[in-house]
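Hello,

Our lab assistant flagged a job as stuck in the queue for most of the afternoon. It eventually completed. Since we weren't sure the result was trustworthy after the delay, we are filing this so someone can double-check. Below is the sequence as submitted and the structure that was eventually returned. Let us know if re-running is recommended.
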Amino acid sequence: HGEYRRLAARGVRAHHLCAFARRCAGQSLIVIAPRLYRRLLDDPARLPLGEAVWQDTLIELPREEPAVFRNVLDGSEVRTVHRNGFSALAVAEVLAAFPVALLRSQA
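-- returned structure --
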């Protein structure tokens, strides 16, 4: 059950991400995963983490999404940023410690 929504990425590394949201009963779950990321790295053993890799890349969020999420995989709290009239997630922050993210809205 619930609504599926593909999320748009913006920034210099936007085409290296896949992101979507599921929303049901007022709760949101956001999935962010890199794609074709080996092209971004100088060392094939390195993971695609942090600002050096993701630079200014953002995941644009629908208006109804909350301002705070919990990353289910690493326990971190992630807050949205506001850029050019829209709310977004900074990929460099979301993928700082682990190369994929599963974000749950904070109730």
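-- support follow-up --
The delay was a queue issue, not a problem with the job. The result is valid. The first strand starts at residue 3 and ends at 6. The chain is about 5% helix and 40% strand.
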